Amino acid sequence: MKNKNLFFGFFIGALSTFIGTFIFTIFFSELNFFESVQLLFKQNKLGGLLSIGSLINIPIFLFLVNKRLFKKAYGLMFFLLILVLIIATLKIN
Question: In sequence order, what DSSP letters do the residues of 12-41 get, joined into one string?
């Protein structure tokens, strides 16, 4: 059961980051989502887009902690740590 809650938190983090990134791109870009991501990757700014898209995880994390769903909150934090490594890799290259 513990691994299920960790995976669920990880999934929540990945899904909410994708949704946040998608919404931000749709509202602030004239291109479609995939073209915007490709353009930002070429300009080495994809990490910034992922960072902005992951801001939606803050209220989700606070909600999980308030409801004492700590294993799901740990899964969310695990996803965010992996996302930090991905963003750092994008920034280095």
Answer: HHHHHHHHHHHHHHHHH-SS-HHHHHHHHH
